[in-house]
Amino acid sequence: MDSVFVECFKELKDPRVDRTKKHLLLDIIAIAICAVICGAEGWEEIEDFGKARQDWFSNFLELPNGIPSHDTFSRVFGVLKPLKFQESCMKWFRKVQALLPETVIAIDGKTLRGSARKNKELKGLHIVNAWSCANGIALGQVKVDDKSNEITAVPEILKQLEIKGAIVTLDAMGCQKENVKAIVEAEGDYIISLKGNQGNLHDLVKDSFELKDKGLNALDVTTASDEINADHGRIESREIEVIDTKELKGLIDPEWQKLNSFIRIISQRIEANKTTREERFYISSLPHTEPTKTLKAIRSHWQVENNLHWSLDVTFREDQSRIRQENAAINYSWMRKFALGLLKKDTSVKMSIRRKQRKALVDPSYLTTVVKEN
């Protein structure tokens, strides 16, 4: 087996008892990851792929008892610790791919809708994902507890990330003092959407901009505009206004660490002779003197929706997956993200992710290119 793969996964603890080990853990993981890269959507398809490519796998896997059955794949990934598996995958990714320094790390949640069990009144698993906007890859994931929400999951995923020098973007659910503290202590910056869940702070930010509009305060404000988009019969524009909080420190709870700026995004859409205007508010550790950088980071946040969640649902058909056992569903979700990252980072061909999957499926040499060092 490739020495880099072994180096990264050898410390992963095999959760099986000795008497059940007909197949090597690394063989199982390697086959599963390669199958998901090629578009496998379940354990049966992973088994089918392994059998179809058994001669190829035999070149670098031991396969003491041939290709594992789909039940074996299901059982192993059902007991494999998701965080440890994820950490091993990221070690491998960093070994085989050159990564850019992190700029914006977008954190947002997604539900695995197919994992719901309506007859038992169980909701689908909800997972919070961290997305590297510079590299176009998932950096980590955390399952949200059944009786909780994203508020408790965000601190856990922040612990997994190297955020020094990066800007972490969060939606309003993540607007919590504990998250701000964790980001600041890790020497990162933050931009967090602000809504009514933080009533006093939200009112202060909103009132500050209303007074600015009326010319009734002398706060330092900078502005910047986004490019105007004219497409599909509509015209869209965005403008950012950033207030320096230096003169407002006495009104801000000091537990909101390094809160240097209040932000308002004004979006306007003209469509069919109808104009709509929307305002959104944010808090940030960035200085008010960098409105263009701030606006770019806010727009980058939507990569987690457009580049990750959309690809998982459309290309990998994640919402159609019927894997319901918790660990298995979480591990399979991570394999999709990991496969997406490997396919995105491959530049040997210029194709959509779907076409790359198909090429890897029919061309073992291309699959080798995707998983080997670039």
How many β-strands, per DSSP?
10
Strand content: 15-25%
Unreliable spans are none
Rg from alpha-carbon coordinates? 23 Å
Q: What is the string of SSEs from the N terminus onward?
A: HHHHHHEEEHEHEHEEEEEHHHHH
Summarize the structure.
The protein is an alpha+beta fold and 374 residues long.
Brief descriptors of the model:
374 residues, alpha+beta, 14 helices, 41% helix, elongated
Describe it for me?
- This protein has helices at 3-9, 25-37, 43-52, 54-57, 70-79, 82-96, 150-160, 177-185, 199-213, 291-300, 303-314, 326-345, 353-362, 364-371; strands at residues 104-112, 125-132, 137-143, 167-170, 189-194, 221-225, 229-231, 234-244, 261-271, 274-284.
- With 374 residues, the protein is α+β, with helices and mostly antiparallel strands.
- Among the domains are: 3-98 and 324-371, no CATH class; 195-285, no CATH class.
- Strands 1, 2, 3, 4, 5, 6, 7, 8, 9 and 10 form a ten-stranded mixed β-sheet that branches.
- The radius of gyration is 23 Å and the shape is elongated.
- The relative contact order is 0.14.
How are the SSEs placed, and which strands pair?
Blueprint: H1 3-9, H2 25-37, H3 43-52, H4 54-57, H5 70-79, H6 82-96, E1 104-112, E2 125-132, E3 137-143, H7 150-160, E4 167-170, H8 177-185, E5 189-194, H9 199-213, E6 221-225, E7 229-231, E8 234-244, E9 261-271, E10 274-284, H10 291-300, H11 303-314, H12 326-345, H13 353-362, H14 364-371
Parallel strand pairs: 1-4, 4-5
Antiparallel strand pairs: 1-2, 2-3, 5-10, 6-8, 7-8, 8-9, 9-10
Helix pairs in contact: 1-6, 2-3, 2-12, 3-5, 5-12, 6-12, 7-8, 13-14
